[in-house]
Task: inverse folding
């Protein structure tokens, strides 16, 4: 499991004011819980992030057209 995650994580990004504000907005406007809101906000605020991999359909819907979210369940169905 440790090797799996180390291959996926390319950076650890500190939470700054912009990410915190976006997290609050996402949390207020969606049914996402705080951890998922934080992940989505970080991905949306960071200019280098082009896509997000998640197993959460609600997170993918909350991202809308602003960010590509690839669902793990879709990957598993294709395998």
Result:
């Amino acid at each position: 499991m440790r090797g799996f995650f180390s291959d996926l994580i390319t950076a650890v990004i500190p939470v700054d004011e912009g990410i915190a504000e976006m997290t609050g907005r996402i949390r207020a406007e969606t049914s996402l819980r705080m951890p998922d809101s934080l992940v989505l906000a970080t991905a949306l605020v960071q200019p280098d992030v082009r896509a997000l991999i998640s197993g959460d359909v609600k997170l993918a819907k909350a991202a809308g057209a602003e960010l590509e979210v690839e669902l793990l369940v879709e990957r598993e169905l294709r395998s």
